[in-house]
Structure formats: C-alpha cells, structure tokens
What we know:
By secondary structure, the protein is mostly helical.
Amino acid sequence: MGLFTGFTRLCKGLAAVLVAGYLITLIFPFIIDYLALIPGKTIPFAWNLLTAGYLEQSFLELLVSVLGLLFGGKLLEPIWGSREFLKFIVAVNFLTSLSTFIFMILLYYVSRQEDYLYIPLSGFHGILAGFLVAVKQIMPDQEVTASFVLKLRAKWLSSFLVLIAIVLGLLIKESILFVPFILLGTYCSWVYLRYFQRKSETNLRGDLSDEFSFATFFPEFLRPVVNAIALICEKLFCWRNLKSREQAEGQFLGGLPLPGSDPIEATRRRERGARALEERLSVAAKSAELESRDKGSKGKPDFLLSNVNQDLGAEDNV
C-alpha cells in the first residue's frame, strides 16, 4: 500500500465537495456571500453555519484541506467507522462555526469595528485541527517527525498548532480569517470527544480519562490553573452524563472493577490505533520488498535461466 493509496470512499467524496465548492467560488464569486460565515448576515442566512466549513477561498487552503482530509480519514475512519467519522466532521463543523459566530459578535462589541461583522470566514481548517485532537486521544505517545528536524509526540500536535495560530494572530492581521476556526475547532472537537462521542464497545459517551483532560494540552506547570478553569466546562457538559461518568471512572462491586470502565476502553482504543498504524507500515514495507524482488528477478541474465532449464531437462531424462 503506497502513501497516496488506500483512501476511503467517504474521504474522496468529501474531498470532491471541497473541490466543487472552490470551483463554484471561481465561477460565481458572489456565492461566497451566501455560503461563507459572515456574522452580520448569519441571522437571515443561518445555513452558513453548516456550509462555511466546506468552502475554501484559495487554492493553497484547498490543497491543505484535501490532503489533511484524505490522510486524516485514512487513519481515523478505520478505527471509528464511517458513520462515526462523518458524525464527527458534521458536529465539529457546526460547533466551530457557531462558536466562531459568537466570538466575532463579541469581538465587534468589544472593538466596535464593523469589519468583524462582515468578514467572510470559511474553511476546513477547524476540522483539520479536530483531527489532531483525535490523534492525541487515540495514539498520544506516537512520535511524529516534522521536516526531519522537529520531533513531537502526537499528543502535542494540536497544542503546537494552537501555539502557531496564536502567534500568527498576534503578528498578522489577516489571520482573523483562519485563527478562530483553528482555536475553536480544537476546543469543540475536544468537547465532542470528551463528552458526546458514543463508544460502541461500552455504549458510553465520551472519554473521561485523565490522559485526555483539557489540562493535558498545556505544559505541566500550567495544569493546576487550567484544571480549575476546566471545572466550568465539566459543569456545563457533564450534568447529563453523570451516570456515564461514574461508569467511565470505574464502578466497583465487591472491591472489583466492573468490565467496560472507560480507562480500560481508552487503553484498548489507543492500542487499536497503534496497531492500525503498525499494520499500515508493515504492508508498505512488504510491498516495497516485493517490488525490489520483482526488479531483481527481471534483471537476471538469460543464460542463467537457460542453464536452469537444461538441468531440469536432464533430470527428466534420467
């Protein structure tokens, strides 16, 4: 299996949607006013909370989004399943657009600059940021090398992206077009995975393990402060999942933990993720070895093959 093979039908279909949306904006530029997220027009055009995430306005953003979707889906969809993978994309896209709309309205009231109300915001980068959060959850200890120089564990990829987005937001004024999507996409995807994603193995919602708490996005010395702030989120999203939380933290009966507790399920999920990655690497290595053998056999001299045929003929005569 090569690097650019093995993409799922769902990912190819979503990539086609992104390409089609970009081509439509080239042919009919006015369509951006109806499909992009423009906070000042969202109240009558509420559908842009759904469409903005699938609309790219530049070729570079389209290229990054398509590649990120294909490779992210190649990793996550086999683990989650097509239905859950699509549900994740739809949910994170809507939550990111909604929170970005609220953020831009608040930004307008603070700054009194009407530009924040009429900037067309769109792009798939909020969901791409969510993919990194999912990788953090599934295979946090997997080491990733960037440009053969920087080595990071997978659990720090989303934090590193957020840091870059914040720096760009402080230095470049135009970064307002994508920074809110990245920051809020990271947070909304964590909220969905933490509290709402249903696990087929245990029929529980969310991942309440300590290894996936909000504080794990931050360095060790900041975690006590972050944990105190994160209690607000716990109260907002956990009140419906109190029963699931008790089971997820591990119920005890007669001093023994009941099967299906969330820490066990989280460990199994990370093992499945690591195993899926190892299988892909082994398949790629085997295919490369077979190709090298084929090339070697094709390069053998003809006289060696003729000698082998003569020896076989002599054995048949005997």
